[in-house]
Amino acid sequence: MTELGKPRSSPRFVSARDVAKLAGVSRSAVSRAFTPGASVAPETREKIMVAATRLGYQVNDLARGLLAHRSRIVGLVATKPELGFRAHLTAALAAVLIRRGSVPVLINAGETAEDTDAAQRTLFGHRAEAVIVLSGSPPSSFIELAKSNGLPIVAIGREAPEIDIVQTDNAEAARRIAAAFASAGHKRLAFAGSESGTPSIVERERAFLAEAGRLGIAVTVARGPDTDYVGGLLAAERLFAAVEKPTAVFAVNDLVAFALTDHLKIRLGLRVPEDVAVVGFDDLPEAAWLGYRLTTFRQDPMKMAERAVALLEERATTPSTAPVRLRIAAQLMVRDTFSPPNDGAFGP
Questions:
Q1: Single pTM value for the model
Q2: At residue 59, does pLDDT exceed 70?
């Protein structure tokens, strides 16, 4: 209730009719003024824009989309979207989509069947125009539903049949760092991974072990329950509980590498890289912090976002072409935790 005892009126957006009344023009003239390419006299357009600015009018894109049977919604499907690189990729995708006039909607796929069902109802009930599935472990049912509804779909950082994919070249990066450790004289290598088993994680681990094996070097593997800081601490504890401790460790991502570095320095009193070399993956902003100065492979979230959205646009105009698979090279950002011999070979 208001102080006068009368019910407060419901909030109301400024309408095109309000603009037309203030500008002294017809409702259709306002519509034409805000429609690209529509015919309207310059002096009329000027009056409309002045009135719209004064009233704070914004075009109702939702209503326009419903009339044109287009929602302009692009669903960003992710599990744990707040975690590590995924958060930066989500932000980059949102920026690129907004720039092109789309409406990004983050769909947290959750970790239970109930969460997944609710997420799918939200995404497809609002008639999304396209779907981008991020790395992590969103269930394949999102992909199948998008395909069955004829929606353009792109997967980032995961394998899926018959759809467009954008991936970092995880295997090549893992092979390169295994070779670099060997060239630096390290004989006891380790891999700090995760039991989450997402495609990117599995690819990095397999390629690192395969290259080390080809070079005749054994690798100790320890995995935490997830690719976060806590998981990294558990992996670090397991790796350095052995009698023969590794002298170089490839961490599956930067969060794990941060935990590993803290475990080495704070708990064990070891020096990095003098006692143990550490390399991560992602190049999160924290990797450049003075407390870490982490050598790591860079995934560029903006580049990946731009490539993914470009693929969506191409798929929308040419739906029958063969699926595209883009692999983007990861650049080694050399800082303090490891400097490979001849690091010029580790450019973009």
A1: 0.79
A2: no
